[in-house]
Amino acid sequence: MEDSECLDNSDYEEDNIGYELQSLIDELEFINPLAVNDYINIDNRVSAEEELSLQEIVDVVKGTNEREIEEEEEQDEISTIVALNSIENVIKYIQQKDLEIGNLEMKNLIKLKKRIFFDNINEKRQSKLNEYFDFNVLQIVLL
Hints:
There is one protein chain. This protein is mainly α. The chain folds into two domains: 8-45, no CATH class; 78-142. The chain contains seven helices and no strands. α5 (80-96) runs antiparallel to α6.
């Protein structure tokens, strides 16, 4: 077989595969499907965009990371238990290291710990039974 016959045969096979692929795509019943040849040659049609400098790439990546870090910080809510444990750890650290802080600072830490503790209790406190019934009666009246 000559080289020209091999080329003609391979062109025929490529065309045959292209027709088969196009018929399979058409069976999918997409709205405005992309033709096989258009898909294969899509890189030839896309115009080359301006290349970014190394500094521009770094700026883009850093900007994305900063936004992700800000989003993570906004999403993380510290529980009351974590806050109480943290304050206790600070107090223990001060005591273990014999840090010379004033009594006022230590009293403020203890006050803060108590405030968080009591706020947590108030959040968990069960509402009064008569408040429940007053609310339901109000809903019925409004209906």
